[in-house]
Each structure stands twice: as structure tokens, then as C-alpha cells.
Amino acid sequence: MSKMLAEIREQPTALERTLKAELRGFERLRARFEKERPRLVVLAARGTSDNAAQFGRYLIEVTTGIPVSLAAPSVSTLYHSNLRLEGALLAAVSQSGESTDTNVVLEEAKKQGAFTIGITNEPESTLARIADHAVLVRAGREKSVAATKTYTGQLLSFYLLAYALGAKIRIDDLRLLPDLAAKALTLEKEVAARAEKYKYARHAVVIGRGLNYANAFEWALKMMETCYIIAERFSQADILHGPIAMVEPSFPAFVLAPPGPTWPVMNEMITKLSGLRAETLVLTDKSNAEAPKSALRIPAKLAFKPGKNGPALPEDLLTPIPYIIPAQMFAASLSAVKGLDPDQPRGLSKVTLTL
How confident is the model over 122-164, as pLDDT tens digits? Predict the structure, then answer.
């Protein structure tokens, strides 16, 4: 068994450990932000961490109304331009905490008046040391080059950050996530069987929308890293603005289709792909009765229903973590089917240093 697959299986425990250990720190942040709410949130990251940041952007804007920007590190590292960040919150995300350009962005943000948070899996890292507040993803050492358990830990950290920023997310709801991750893991055998069909795939598209848009990027990245598939990733809206033209009969298409606000447009996308005779794999869950019978279903009802007196939060609020796990398992399985080693992708190392 690959290290990647072993680490995918560790995610329920890692999520539970992270939530338990980091909650007190986020309660302190919540008290701080109640007194002085950031006018803007800026997120800095690269690679898989950047996909997690994309999720953070959607989540924070949807649940708090605070504008969120994804940093362009080259503005600081290559153009040496100073951004005016007084009253802003800068959150830098890095699995290793040693991503050079991400750390430069964080240091520059501190100089320009931002309060800074560092989200990392490494407590002794540069990022953890230089941030005003360090958030530790308690995933344990990740040995596979392809990040899996650190990604879901970062997603959980963004739920907690949204909570700290005033989102009406309940901690009791977040405590459901380890169990939902465990439910997703039960699909391992079915996912491996489904992967066999794509053994000779060289190109693919992955399509998402809203809170699962980031997962489209992450699923595609995992296939690029571990299976050497040229996997393009799009929102359901963007693919219709031109790229849909490349889809032809038997073209592999992977669709993240949870219940909730994005389902109507994702359903239209599934119908269009069917008309084009694409080789489509739809990922959904037990609560989505309208999804195709051929869909890969997480055996849990993930449609989020707030309590009678609870906040009006999106129905797909809790889907991103359980939805990425079958995608991770798919990439690991397909890599094995292709006779590749998902733990040591060619040309890659665990820590990438860029400026």
C-alpha cells in the first residue's frame, strides 16, 4: 500500500486531533475580532495550500461578508511592491511552513500593518515562528509527496477561521467532520474499481462550483501529480465560456455535485456532458436523490440543515472535506493502475522553494 493511501486513511483522526487542539486558540481570535473586525482578508499560499485558500475565500465571504483576496506572491517577491494592509488580516498557508514566497508575503504584510496568521503542519517552521498567530494542522508528518491529510486539515482550519471572524458556524457541526470523513473512506474499494476504467486516460476535466470549486483544483492537481494526466479544472460557469469545446465522446470528466445551491447548475452540466458522450464520473452523496444512478455516492446525508433557531448557512457547508477524500483515493488508485508510484512523483519534492 502506498504512503499516500495510508495517509488518506488517517484523515478522520487528524481532523479530530486538529479541532480539539486548535479550538481554544480560535476562541481567542474570535474575541479579538469581535473588538476589531478585519476590513479585508488576504490569503497567501502555493500548490495544494493555494487550493485550500481558494476554499477559504468562498467560505469566509459566504459566511461573514468580509471581502477576501488571494495574494499574488510575485507582487512582493519579484516586483517588491508594498500593499497597504492596515486593518487587514493576512493568512499564509503552507504544509511545510517553509514556502519561501509565502513567508515573504507574510513578513511584508506585517510591515504594512496587517495582523498575520500562519496555517502549517510544522510547529517548528519559519511560518509558525514569524506569524502573529500560528495555527497547527495536527496531521502528523506527511511522508508522501502528494499532500492529502494536510489539505483537509487546512480546510478545517478555514472553517475555524470563519468561525473566529463571526460566521454563525457551530462548533458542534464541525465536530461532525471526522465522522463524515470516515464515511467517505468506506468508498475505497468502489473508487479503486472505478479507477480501472481510466487506466489509459491522458487528459481530463474536473468541474466544481462554489464551496467545492477548490476541490476541482485539488482533484485535478492530484491526478497531474500522481497519474501524469493533463487535468484541466474549471468552475461549471467557466467551462461553458469556451473550454467545453474540447470535450468529445469518451473524454474523461469528473464532476463534484453536492446538494444545495450549486446542484441546479451542476445538474445542467451533467446533462450537457451526457449529450457530448463524455466518460463522466459524478461525485455526490446519499442526500442527493436527483443525481444519476451511476454517480459515486458518499454513504451519508451531507445536506446541511441548521437547527430551527440556527443560522442560515448553505446546504453544502459540510461537503468539501468528505468530497475530496474519494477524489484523493481515486488519484492514488489510478496511479497504481497505471503502474506509477504516487509517493514519489517525478520532478517533485515535498518542500518547494520559489520566489
Answer: 999 999 999 999 999 999 999 988 999 999 999 999 999 999 9
Residues written for the chain? 355
CA distance 324 to 90: 26
Amino acid letter for position 72:
A
Contact 313, 168 (CB under 8 A): yes
What DSSP string describes 180-200?
HHHHHHTTHHHHHHHHGGGTT
Mean pLDDT of 262-280: 97
pTM of the predicted protein model: 0.95
Rounded (10°) angle between helices 177-185 and 149-164: 150
User: Domains (ranges, CATH) in the chain?
Assistant: 3-175 (3.40.50.10490), 183-337 (3.40.50.10490)
Contact call for residues 49 and 93 (beta carbons, < 8 A): yes
Read off the DSSP letter of residue 312.
-
Q: Which residues contact 311 (CB under 8 A, 6 or more apart)?
A: 168, 169, 170
CA count, 13 A, side-chain hemisphere, 116: 24
